[in-house]
Amino acid sequence: MSVDAEPALLLSWEDLAAVSRRLADALQARGRPDIVVGVLRGGMVPAVLVAHELGVRALRGLEVTHTVADGTDAAKTARPAVVNTASLGDVDGADVALVDDVAGSGDTLHTAAAQVRTAGAGRVRTLVCVVNEVNWARRGRTDPACVVDHVGMRCQGWVRFPWETR
Fold first, then answer.
1. What is the pTM of this model?
2. For the domain bounded by 9-68+79-160, which CATH number is listed?
3. pLDDT less than 50: residues of the chain
């Protein structure tokens, strides 16, 4: 897909709210988490929505970078990197819900979850609004469940979220 190509999926705020409700319901079915953590930047918006749906006041962010720029099919670094571990705060023994906007390979979410576990969380559940199945297949993975506990929806290609302006 070229940089100028139309995205495969344009999510509206209403779509995002519906996906966030589904993710919150899936979490609630197995117990409300103590803390919701959004993977910065894109995962923070759905993390806030999920936290509100669940009535969870403890909300944190964890910056993990894997792309070198914004935009369709942006180049990626060799591995995702956790940038600011202090933003995670104290998660020792906590039940943590880790939320990201999109998963193309699962690498960013995997790295974030490993950091949350290393920080001492008692339980880590991973959620993603959208799985890009085209990119997932390119990585040779067949099932997002190997990395993601709860998937809001799946698409065949690029996704543009309502907060993205380009």
1. 0.86
2. 3.40.50.2020
3. 1-4
